[in-house]
Design brief:
25 strands, 2 helices, mainly beta, Neuraminidase
Length: about 375
């Protein structure tokens, strides 16, 4: 009897230590491990081989190790928290090892909370016995400030080394749920922004003769872009939430107009139809769109493999990039809203859930 009891304990421990195995729609499996838990996280970023940075909307920035050990970082700016707004993305400067710069996006208010805008800053990340940000500098503000607490977007990406966009800073600027600013060249909302790493406006941006703000625009006609990443060839990809369905994956090119709110593959929440992209060829159609919605958040690319997180779809969505197109290959139902995804240098996939009790999770080799 005693022998049987010991065997049962060993089996139980084995089960507890094992990773969750999740089967995809195409028959592949992911072996998923839990790393740590966070309160309403928004973004993850690889810091080095052993650590990640994690933001929480409430204004907390953390480092976390693969063992799950978390360390809080001090010295963050004053952040407006409410609705979809709060602390957002965190990205390392391409030359971080030398300059220690991290870039953060968050929601700011110029008037005690009446109006709001997305704000991108950079600061030096000091990781000694008192981890902190130092030397905060403002890089970009989403002007003009507007009311409402949604669709800030504010994802950040740097052009990869060796590409035509090496070292250039790209920021997604959402439509703030106002729709029409996406086609207004005197408003930064509904655009992808391109700047030098210090916030200076590049003279080779595409809209040079349409006003001061337009000189910061790389592309226009966007809605709410919660994921953006470069592939290894230097092609920029971004997804955006559709209105009622019609989420889009777009290949982003200089000076292009992606059509929001004039065209969409989805309809307004009221049910009022919106003409499709094919009805107005001056607008660039998405490479892929989703009806019904997946509600995409976060994007990461390794080689020709792209992963997107799904909020409403509660899934990891795997795509294959093939030249100028990309297609969904497989979907992994995770049972929780996924907020952000990030490949590490070894091809491991980190992802983080959405909500008050959200897990940071890891897949060793998602192939
Ligand atoms: Ca579009």
């Amino acid at each position: 009897m005693r022998q049987i009891f010991i065997v049962l304990i060993i089996s139980f421990n084995t089960v507890v230590m094992a990773a969750d195995v999740v089967s995809g729609s195409g028959g592949r499996t992911l072996s998923v491990r839990d790393i740590a838990s966070f309160a309403s996280p928004w973004a993850i970023e690889m810091l080095d081989a052993g650590r990640l940075l994690v933001t929480e909307k409430s204004g907390q920035l953390w480092t976390v190790r693969g063992s799950g050990e978390k360390t809080a970082i001090d010295g963050l700016p004053k952040i407006y928290v409410g609705g979809q707004g709060g602390l957002g993305d965190v990205v390392l400067h391409p030359n971080f090892e030398a300059n220690r710069w991290v870039y953060l996006s968050f929601v700011d208010s110029p008037d005690g909370g009446r109006t709001r805008y997305a704000h991108v800053v950079r600061a030096r990340l000091i990781l000694d016995d008192r981890p902190r940000l130092e030397g905060l500098e403002s890089i970009w503000r989403q002007m003009p400030a507007t009311q409402g607490e949604g669709h800030f977007s504010h994802r950040i990406a740097f052009g990869p080394a060796g590409s035509a966009q090496a070292g250039m800073l790209f920021i997604t600027s959402g439509d703030r749920q106002l729709q029409w600013p996406a086609q207004d060249m005197e408003m930064a909302q509904g655009k992808i922004i391109r700047l030098h790493d210090d916030g200076a406006v590049p003279v080779d941006n595409p809209f040079q003769d349409q006003g001061t703000l337009a000189r910061t625009f790389w592309s226009v006609g966007h809605r709410n872009m919660l994921g953006m990443a470069f592939d290894s060839r230097g092609v920029l990809w971004a997804h955006e939430m559709g209105p009622r369905h019609g989420d889009e994956l777009n290949r982003i090119t200089a000076g292009a107009n992606y059509g929001w709110p004039e065209v969409s593959e989805g309809n307004h929440y009221s049910g009022v139809p919106i003409p499709p992209h094919s009805s107005q060829p001056q607008f660039v159609a998405p490479i892929q769109f989703w009806v019904p919605t997946i509600a995409p958040s976060g994007m990461t690319i390794d080689g020709d493999t792209m992963f997107i997180g799904g909020l409403r779809s509660q899934a990891l969505i795997k795509l294959r990039i093939n030249g100028d197109v990309a297609q969904e290959l497989e979907r992994f139902e995770m049972g929780r809203r996924i907020r952000d995804v990030q490949f590490d240098a070894k091809g491991g996939l980190w992802f983080i859930e959405d909500g008050r009790s959200a897990r940071l999770r890891y897949v060793e080799a998602p192939r």
